[in-house]
Specification:
There is one protein chain. By secondary structure, the chain is an alpha+beta fold. It has two domains: 56 residues, no CATH class; 48 residues, no CATH class. The chain is built from three helices and six strands; from the N terminus they run ββαββββαα. Strands 1-4-5-2 form a four-stranded mixed β-sheet. A two-stranded antiparallel ribbon has the order 3-6. Strand 4 and strand 5 form a beta hairpin. The longest helix is centred in the middle third of the chain and has 15 residues. Bound molecules: zinc ion (ZN). The site of zinc ion (ZN) has 9 residues, from helix 3.
């Protein structure tokens, strides 16, 4: 076994969580080493279930937003504001019901007065 402290099931100190418990909160260990071992006794003759315990304060979100992901989100938002009719990026999302920006739907495409 390891030299890590061993806690009985449900007797682990606050601030520590198993991998599954971290995942339930949207967290992951994030490269940290386990700081303790959780031991769950089983029936006689069977070795106990063990789980590593990690520090919750060192855990990190499962899917951190990277710069590339933010850029993709921004690009998607710009695409939703770009009119397929006149190609102008509007201040609003193109209404799905219209399929184009309002000036295009009104029959007055690419009115610069709507952009400025
Ligand atoms: Zn348009």
């Amino acid at each position: 076994m390891s030299t890590l402290p061993v806690y009985r099931w449900r007797l682990a100190p606050d601030g520590l969580a198993t991998y599954r418990q971290l995942r339930a909160r949207g967290l992951r260990p994030g490269g940290q080493e386990p700081v303790a071992v959780l031991q769950r006794p089983r029936r006689r003759g069977r070795s106990p279930l063990v789980a590593h315990l990690y520090r919750v304060d060192l855990a990190v979100p499962v899917r951190p937003m990277t710069a590339a992901k933010w850029a993709a989100v921004r690009a998607a938002l710009v695409a939703r504001r770009t009119c397929p009719g006149c190609g102008v990026v509007r201040e609003y999302c193109i209404p799905i019901s219209l399929g184009t920006c309002v000036p295009c739907a009104d029959g007055h495409p690419s009115g610069l007065e709507d952009v400025l």
